[in-house]
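User: Is it possible to get a 3D structure for a protein together with its bound compound? The compound here is NAP. I've pasted both below.
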Amino acid sequence: MSKTDWRIGIAGLGTVGAGLLNFLSDRPGFSPTGGQTVVTGVSARSRARTRPFDISNMPWFDDPVELARSPGNDIFVELIGGAEGPAKAAVEAALNAGKPVVTANKALLAVHGAELARLAESKGVPLLFEAAVMGGVPAVKIMREAMVGDDILSVAGILNGTCNYILTEMEATGRAFADVLADAQRLGYAEADPTTDVGGFDAAHKITLLAALAFGCAPNFAAAEIEGIDQIDLLDIRLAKDLGYRVKLVASAEKSDAGILVRVHPSLAPIAHPLAQAGGALNALFIEGQRIGRIYVQGPGAGAGATAAAVAADIADVMTRAVRPVFQKPASDLKPFTPIDPSKSMGRAYLRFMVKDEPGVIAAVSETLAEAGVSIESFLQKPIENTHGVPIVLTTHAVAESVLMAAIERIANLSSVLARPRLLRVARI
Ligand SMILES: NC(=O)c1ccc[n+]([C@@H]2O[C@H](COP(=O)([O-])OP(=O)(O)OC[C@H]3O[C@@H](n4cnc5c(N)ncnc54)[C@H](OP(=O)(O)O)[C@@H]3O)[C@@H](O)[C@H]2O)c1
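Assistant: Yes, that's possible. Here is the predicted structure of the complex:
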């Protein structure tokens, strides 16, 4: 292998960009092929901003698109973020100029992955995104490289550290969602606008990419069913625990003869299960292959050092000229997948009904469920102070989602039921 020097342009000098610059300054000789790595251009929104590293000797570009197409660099690294705008324009410009691109941008690839893969492959250059899913955990490499000799059946896990941190804190401290979110924002675990994280969209971007890698299809973010944690009630976290479960934001993708189902939901995991044990800001993922069986990985899904390490691993792949299709198959063969109608999917559920404290209520609820074809697995009635009414909580055996929804509607209309029933899925893990 020849010793080549590599010139890198980096757009985006925030958390991950700073992590990458720190890494490259700690490891000036970083190159698996033995040459030198030099940063030959940087771009961010504000040149005047004080940064925790020295960029005075690095050429500055006001416009990341100019940096992307500059003949002064061999590899373009996009660390700006966002599905549209400057990140997309810069990645397109770099690919059009025939430059390898490394990005951590899950939103961009979940929405525009198929067209960018076509562009990259038409130019014969890699488009790599290890850091976009699970930060420092090499989930993309496992799917794109290690598991190509198998047929992946499903992937499921915790893909958003902010949500995992909030849920863990709510359970540990008994504080409500809004209170813990405010703390997470103060500590820098959550953005000022937390919608992308707590609304489930970030996890949906990531599971969309894992589904594309797992099943060799075009990323189809629009097909993902998304529910975040912003409506999670502390009461459900407590009651789920009484039933032996922990609430986690679980993102999953599974394939069957009917198509592919990609979803993100707050879900119950049995307390002893590894997903329930992955607390704080950790990410965790189960991958199930037909031949390999189940693989479990867990680690830091975010943070400057961990995410920059994943970016550096992709840069190393460019340097060694490791060539793989962007999403498992040649881009021209990527087809949008057929989403499974979620109402036909089968699963177990947790239901909470707030009812009047009067005789006959439990019988009315269980009879209505039985008539609708929903069978109860476990049941809990617990007086809780400061709640309006008494909660009845149960878990069901596996049932079609449409049957479950019809049963919930009927129970919501009972005169003894005081509020809209709360549904959480039991994770299929
Ligand atoms: N943070 C993590 O732990 C993590 C983990 C995995 C993946 N990612 C992904 O990595 C990417 C970067 O995330 P981050 O957390 O590092 O973001 P960040 O801290 O918000 O940094 C974003 C950077 O982009 C720059 N920028 C914004 N608009 C720009 C424009 N129009 N032109 C040029 N530069 C512009 C900003 O400039 P200024 O500095 O001048 O404001 C900033 O340096 C995102 O795609 C994110 O989803 C992040």
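The chain has three domains: 6-132, 139-300+334-342, 343-426. Residues 6-132 form a domain with the Rossmann fold fold (CATH 3.40.50.720).
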